[in-house]
């Protein structure tokens, strides 16, 4: 039996790392990517390979066409097919919109949204050819409701949500499902700027009483990527009933 395969972007740490390991545990060959931290990505590669699967890694800004194309082409060449794409790469920026430079805006849009377009475009032809495939985009509850002092981040996640719904309609006739997970407060490095007091206050607002764990997200993403094929075009909040 030919092993299935998955591409996970932004996989050097946090949610992306947990997702890569979750799929490896299930026997998937895995292609992982990060923007620049090769040593961290190498460590993830070793963890993935410890589950007896093949892993390739690629370091580069996949918000740029050259790097996104190379990542996906390398995975297709190594594995022969791509079953799942997880668009996870993302950065945040905290601050007033009036203080945000154009360079900062462009960086967030490129990393969070353009990368989703480029990687999706790269894998779609092979998925259409095999008449199957899954694309799962990692979004945020701020893409649904918006967040003060995170306007650019919210805008990119809102863009991902609309992208997901539109692409799902486009690809449904080819038996390719496209969904997004809108994460709430997840215990990652992205939230390490919070003080202990701020974190406790935020946890008190979440009915489930805690931040989500990266392993929680990974298990949920795997379930979506391997579940019923009638689920497509959905933006699924994963926030412990927070919002």
Morphology call: globular
The major β-sheet equals: 7 strands, parallel
Question: Which structural class best describes the helix and strand composition?
Answer: alpha/beta
- How much helix, percentage-wise, in residues? 40-55%
Instruction: Give the uncertain stretches in residue-range form.
Output: none
Number of domains: 1
CATH C-level label: Alpha Beta
Order of helices and strands: EHEHEHEHEHHEHHE
- Using the coordinates shown, work out and report the CATH topology: Rossmann fold
Instruction: Indicate the proportion of strand residues.
Output: 15-25%
Q: What CATH architecture would you give? A: 3-Layer(aba) Sandwich
Strand elements, count: 7
The radius of gyration computed from the alpha-carbon positions, rounded to a whole number of angstroms, is 17 Å
- SS summary, helix count: 8
- Oligomer, anyone? single chain
Mean pLDDT value: 96
Side-by-side strand order of the widest sheet: 3-2-1-4-5-6-7
CATH superfamily: NAD(P)-binding Rossmann-like Domain
Distance from first to last alpha carbon: 43 Å
GO molecular function: oxidoreductase activity
Protein name: 3-oxoacyl-[acyl-carrier protein] reductase
InterPro entries: NAD(P)-bd_dom_sf, Sc_DH/Rdtase_CS, SDR, SDR_fam
Pfam families: adh_short (PF00106)
